[in-house]
Amino acid sequence: MTDAPPIRDAATIIVMREMPEGRAVLMGQRGKSAAFMPGKFVFPGGAIDPVDSTVPLAAPLDLRCAERLQQESTLPPESFAAAAIRELWEETGQTIGAQAAWPDAPQGWRGYAKRGLRPSGAGLHFVFRAITPPGRPRRFDARFLLADAALLTSDPDDFDGAEDELAHLQWVPLARARQFDLPFITQIVLAEIAALETGRAPESVPFFKNRDEEREIKRLGLV
């Protein structure tokens, strides 16, 4: 009998853009041979790297966003913002940040710093959290952050700088998103963000808590 995989902290970023068809989100397709969610259309995201907790944000997260990210977490909230922005850059070539010198950027961030940027937490909203259910080959405790495409410091239609983890990068209209092959949790997240006003933080953050010893749906941020 093999040991169950560890639950790794992760960050996912949903970039939303106003387009002629209405609101759309940036998504790409995972490879069909990927160990986790093969062939599925997903938002950019991935596990937190240790270095992400050391990244100095050019602008801080909103206080309410930071407080909710801190709930039931041992990591600083800034690490989730940094990881989400790093994954966005690696997987799509898109950047969110502010012009700032960063001569001592750590390994994994030096290419980003060469663009004259440091990641920024301004305008990011924490909108969802979910732990991968037991029985999967990889498990993550993923925080989903929402960003308006106006925050991008890159051309939103240029994906030439993307690595090869996601294919078919595109802006998917919310009205047509369910026509794509989506993970179940992504369908739930899309329903949540469709109900949000553009640029507004949610009143509370749904948390699908699928730990082995406790499975529940709760909402973070409720008074």
Outline of the structure:
The strands form two sheets. Strands 1, 2, 3, 4, 7, 8, 9, 10 and 11 form a nine-stranded mixed β-sheet that branches. By secondary structure, the protein is an alpha+beta fold.
Describe the structure.
- The longest helix has 16 residues, at 77-92.
- The chain has helices at residues 63-70, 77-92, 110-113, 184-194; strands at residues 7-19, 22-30, 41-42, 45-47, 97-99, 117-119, 125-131, 139-148, 166-173, 205-211, 214-220.
- Strands 1, 2, 3, 4, 7, 8, 9, 10 and 11 form a nine-stranded mixed β-sheet that branches. Strands 5-6 form a two-stranded antiparallel sheet.
- A hairpin with a 2-residue loop joins strand 10 and strand 11 (214-220).
- By secondary structure, the protein is of the alpha+beta class.
- The protein is built from four helices and eleven strands.
- It has a single domain (7-220), classed as Nucleoside Triphosphate Pyrophosphohydrolase.
- The radius of gyration is 17 Å and the shape is globular.
- The N and C termini lie far apart (43 Å).
